[in-house]
Amino acid sequence: MSRSQKNDNFIDKTFTVLADIVLKVLPTSKEEKEAFCYYRDGMSAQSEGEYAEALENYYEALGLEEDPYDRSYILYNIGLIYASNGEHIKALEYYHKALELNSKLPQALNNIAVIYHYQGVKASEKHKKDISKSMFDKAASYWKQAIFLAPNNYIEAQNWLKTTGRQAIDNRF
What does each C-alpha distance from 48 to 39, 44, 133, 138 come to in angstroms? Predict the structure, then answer.
């Protein structure tokens, strides 16, 4: 039984039914439909905290999906899981892979910035000023890019950029 058939949540069930209908009517290949099913099951597992199962599904979807835009979201979600598990280097790797395929993913840029900011805070706590400044500067660079793509989002990042004097006057990165 696929994960989508096990969902107890009304919204998940509704999404699954709608997705199945869309899959049936859209002129897509068998591989694309199968990739979407793995992706959908990965999202469901991820939302339930079943990260190992989600990763299995995402990797299966990656093996089948050819569309770069769709692949970018799979890679992004893999990055989310690694970040949730504290594996920041792996998370950064997958966020960057996602951005290579889709440079207009502000959420990936934001998550990269969050990781660099976290590393900056940790370095600061250890009184490693040069490393801390470097990490904070990297975080600022990625947040500026994310804000450029989604100007109404990331309010906390915008405030941090302003309060730390890292906000560019013309909002360019």
Answer: 14, 6, 37, 32
- Measure Cα distances from 47 to 43, 66, 83, 89 in Å: 6, 24, 14, 22
Q: Which of 7, 90, 76 is nearest to 45 (CA)?
A: 7
Distance CA 77, CA 118 (A): 20
| Percent of the chain with pLDDT strictly greater than 70 | 80
Which stretches of 48-128 are DSSP H helices? 51-64, 68-84, 88-101, 106-125
Distances from the Cα of 86 to the Cαs of 26, 79, 80, 117, in angstroms? 38, 11, 10, 14
The pTM for the full model equals: 0.83
CB neighbourhood size of 127 (10 A): 8
Q: Which value, to the nearest 10 degrees, does the dihedral of the CA atoms of residues 148, 154, 160, 163 take?
A: 70
Residue 2 has pLDDT above 70, yes or no: no
The mean pLDDT of 78-95, rounded to a whole number, is: 97
